[in-house]
Amino acid sequence: MADELEEAYWSVYDGAAAKSTVGEVLVRLPRIVRQIGRLAWQADRSATLAVVVLQLVSAAMGACGLVASVGVLRELFGHGPTPDRVWSAVPQILLVVGSLSARALLEAGVAVAQARVTPKIRTALECDFLRLTAHVRLEVVDDADWHDDAYRASDRGLFYARQIVGQAVSLASTFLELIGTAGVLASLHPTQARRRPAIGGLSGGSRPRCSVGQWL
After folding, report:
1. Residues whose CB falls within 8 Å of the CB of residue 211, separated by 6 or more in sequence, listed in order
2. Nearest alpha carbon to residue 185 among 57, 67, 61
3. Which of 166, 185, 211, 196 has its CA nearest to residue 69?
4. Is the CA virtual torsion 162, 163, 169, 175 positive or negative?
5. DSSP string for 1-64
6. How many CB atoms lie within 10 A of CB 43?
7. Whole-angstrom distance, CA of residue 134 vs CA of residue 187
8. pTM of structure
9. What are the CA-CA distances from residue 193 to residues 96, 196, 201, 215 (Å)?
10. Residues 159, 184: contact at Cβ < 8 Å?
11. Staple 99 to which of 65, 76, 77, 188, CB 3.0 to 4.6 Å?
């Protein structure tokens, strides 16, 4: 009886997706992102451009906030009375708050632009699907395999096409955040190395004394 059971139309390619390696996914990812970008550009150029620009500015705001956070820690753990250190950190704290607020507004703008372009991409894909299926020969319509493929493309294909726009935007946002964080850490690392206290020439009975501010 199990041999007579047929696999559901929506799970035909589930096995292939589960067996895909990370390398295969990374190889296919640029082509998929390029296709989504081309469809988005054809559907709504202004919204697509807004998503790209706002994502870049949002990543820049995140990097600025990270740099300002390092400045806050440097002031708070520096030398001097606690009230003076807190007051010295106020400008950096305001910069962190401003960066996070600006980034939140930019992310809201990305969401608005994404909401504009996503239905247009789905409509364009649906029109392409209808145009392709309308030009097949009549005897092909009676083919069970072709009918299953067409129904899968219409049902699951358009469903995932609507989701992939948001996933591509989230992937781009994460990638830009990683680049910004790596750039900030790379620019701060030489400064940290120069400010580390030397402890190699201590006498046998002496103990090294250093504050957190020397490391910031």
Report:
1. 77, 79
2. 67
3. 185
4. negative
5. -GGG----GGGTTHHHHHH--HHHHHHHHHHHHHHHHHHHHHH-HHHHHHHHHHHHHHHHHHHH
6. 20
7. 58
8. 0.68
9. 25, 6, 17, 9
10. no
11. 65
First to last CA, the chain: 70
Q: Which two tokens stand for residue 147?
A: 């009918």
Residue 136 phi/psi, 5-degree rounding, is -90, 160
pLDDT in tens, the chain (216 residues): 455 556 665 566 666 667 778 788 788 888 888 888 888 888 889 988 998 899 889 888 888 888 888 888 888 888 888 888 888 888 888 988 998 899 899 999 999 998 898 888 888 888 888 888 888 887 787 787 787 778 877 777 777 777 888 888 888 888 888 888 887 778 765 544 444 444 344 444 444 444 444 434
Number of residues that this document lists for the chain: 216
Cα(49)–Cα(1) distance, integer angstroms: 55
What is the full DSSP assignment across 120-187? HHHHHHHHHHHHHHTTS-HHHHT-HHHHHHHHHIIIIIHHHHHHHHHHHHHHHHHHHHHHHHHHHHHH
183 close to 64: Cβ distance less than 8 angstroms: no
Q: Which helix (H) or strand (E) holds 206?
A: none
- Give dist(CA 206, CA 106) in Å, integer: 53
